[in-house]
Specification:
The structure holds 2 protein chains of 2 kinds. By secondary structure, chain A is mainly alpha-helical. Chain A has a single domain, classed as Non-ribosomal Peptide Synthetase Peptidyl Carrier Protein, Chain A (Orthogonal Bundle). Chain A is built from 4 helices and no strands. By secondary structure, chain B is of the alpha/beta class. Helices cover 28% and strands 25% of the residues of chain B. The longest helix of chain B has 18 residues. Chain B starts with 23 loop residues before the first strand and ends with a helix.
Chain lengths: 80, 469
């Protein structure tokens, strides 16, 4: 699985929505499913999937799928 | 003119807004509203309502959102003696409407909108009734808690006293305001002439922390779920020089987490208050003084000022004074609700409740604190929202089938089904209709429900099984 696929799968699991709905534009609090609960689960899942420890600033900056890719890139992860 | 809605009514924070003058009451984005300005707007609001025909002692419904306009309506209603049915704006419209019709709220008050006239007539209520709050979360429980002016005002005073809130303090809305804990934070700040930052930004967003820093917020409040978030955000690494104390309520925080946050607060020079309450007590009942930690970890502490805790034998109901003997925790105080309401007639009752049986099992420790040892009724708190399992089971049975059982522990709900084919529908219902995240519930399939000799499902066995998987 590529990193992009892994990322989409992680979002789909954490937000409990269909993987087809995971687009770059999808933003925190823009849909009912991406609430605080889901956000916390998302952070935990991202850390587990990519075996990283996110900084506080990165956690609170993660406001969209696109933004999450930008942030994860800082942890030497590539999304093509 | 400030009418007295109650014969032996003593004025509370809502009546004393003007006394705090030029101090800042509400902060909303770039807007800062002083107590004097707030009072002006409250008086205007009351005049408008009078012209519209909103009258004292007649029920109205409200969305108390973190918005100045909603706070103005809330305080205007308290001043004018208009009892409020507090609705969770997040629950489906039809559920809200059925609550409005069931109890008879003639108007709906929402931020930045004119009061909306409802089809149903306003129920005439007992004159000491101030608020109707829902006992459970998103389920839109048909049972509401009736709170009097005295209930709310006395609780705000007690909280301000034991937290030693100062008029220079600044709180922030980290909890929803239709939730009794969230509302009590606002009440106790207003009681003291302190300020509140109104925001809908979630705790896990950059904007929330920007507000905390920009307005030099001095306290943070949260349910156990918020503390999980604070843990994940690595609160210890955040630079928050203005914070003075943290409060936690709305469910049991695991001992390990209490110790972790206690240590963190020690390092930062903050105080950490572990508290206990119920909507039925407006809501605060007990708190653990910060200096009692870490020794008293796991205890809910002592009664708030003005209240009294007693533990009663489950069978004889006599008062237990022996250390480490379990009984039901009961509470007496001026903040104990008037009673429950399910129909308009309940709003006209003239009964009072002296003592509140909490449904929690508790014991006295050697040091004189109260420790919760279990629950006598089947209650679950999922992210601060309370679910009465018998009610939930009843509801699910009506929709699905009689052959199911509902159980759980801490923040895990377990639904046991007899047939495979309903699994998906149940999953969808719990997730979509009841808004419970899929990681917070489990569905087990059991062709034959394990039962006790009484014929009741063996809930204990089912929990153990769910936890093994």
């Amino acid at each position: 699985m590529t990193n992009t696929e892994k990322l989409q799968q992680t979002f789909a699991t954490a937000l409990a929505i269909d993987i087809n709905r995971i687009t770059d534009e999808l933003a925190y609090n823009s849909i009912k499913e991406w609430d605080s609960t889901a956000h916390m689960i998302l952070v935990a899942e991202l850390e587990a999937t990519f075996d990283i420890l996110l900084d506080t600033d990165d956690i609170i900056d993660m406001s969209s799928v696109a933004e999450s890719k930008r942030i994860l890139a800082k942890y030497d992860l590539r999304f093509d | 003119m400030r009418p007295s809605p109650q014969p032996n009514y003593t004025a509370g924070f809502a009546d004393k807004i003007f006394q705090h003058g030029e101090k800042i009451a509400l902060i909303f984005g770039d807007e800062k509203i002083s107590y004097a300005q707030l009072d002006d707007r409250i008086q205007n609001r009351k005049s408008t309502w009078e012209q519209l025909g909103l009258v004292s002692n007649h029920l109205a419904a409200i969305h108390i959102t973190p918005h100045p306009d909603a706070i103005i309506s809330y305080l205007a209603a308290l001043q004018a003696g208009i009892p409020l049915l507090v609705l969770d704006p997040g629950i489906p419209d039809e559920t809200q409407l059925s609550l409005i019709e069931q109890l008879g709220a003639g108007w709906l008050l929402r931020a930045d909108q004119s009061p909306k006239k409802m089809k149903v007539a306003s129920t005439s209520c007992r004159d000491d009734l101030a608020l109707l709050l829902s006992t459970s979360g998103s389920s839109g429980s048909p049972k509401s808690v009736m709170l009097s002016y005295q209930n709310i005002y006395s609780n705000a005073e007690s909280i301000a006293e034991y937290l030693q809130i100062q008029s220079t303090d600044v709180a922030i809305t980290s909890l929803p305001l239709h939730y009794c804990y969230g509302l009590s934070v606002v009440n106790s700040q207003l009681q003291t002439g302190a300020a509140i930052v109104l925001t809908e930004e979630p705790l896990m967003s950059k904007n929330f922390w920007n507000e905390v820093k920009a307005h030099e917020v001095t306290s943070l409040s949260g349910v156990p779920f918020h503390y999980q978030m604070l843990k994940r955000l690595r609160l210890e690494s955040m630079d928050l020089p203005s914070i003075r104390y943290l409060t936690q309520a709305g469910g049991r925080l695991p001992d390990d987490d209490i110790l972790r946050f206690e240590e963190l607060c020690q390092d930062k020079g903050w105080s950490f208050y572990v508290m206990y309450g119920q909507t039925e007590a407006s809501p605060r009942i007990a708190y653990l003084p910060p200096e009692a930690l870490p020794q008293a970890v796991g205890c809910i502490g002592k009664a708030i000022p003005g209240g009294r805790l007693i533990i009663r034998d489950l069978e004889t109901r006599s008062v237990i004074n022996t250390v480490e003997e379990t009984g039901e925790l009961c509470y007496l105080g001026p903040n104990v609700m008037l009673g429950y309401a399910q129909k308009p007639a309940d709003l006209q009752s003239n009964t009072f409740l002296n003592e509140l049986a909490t449904g929690d099992l508790a014991e006295w420790t050697v040091e004189g604190w109260v420790r919760i040892t279990g629950r006598s009724s089947r209650l679950l708190k999922i992210q601060g929202k309370r679910w009465q399992l018998d009610q939930l089971e009843f509801r699910l049975k009506k929709i699905f089938s009689d052959l199911l059982a509902v159980t759980g522990r801490d923040d895990q709900l377990v639904v046991v089904l007899a047939a495979d084919e309903q699994q998906e529908a149940m999953h969808t219902y719990l997730h979509r209709e009841l808004s419970i995240h899929p990681t917070l519930f489990r569905i087990l399939i059991h062709q034959e429900l394990p039962c006790l000799s009484t014929g009741k499902p063996n809930y204990q066995l089912l929990i153990e099984e769910a936890e093994k998987r």
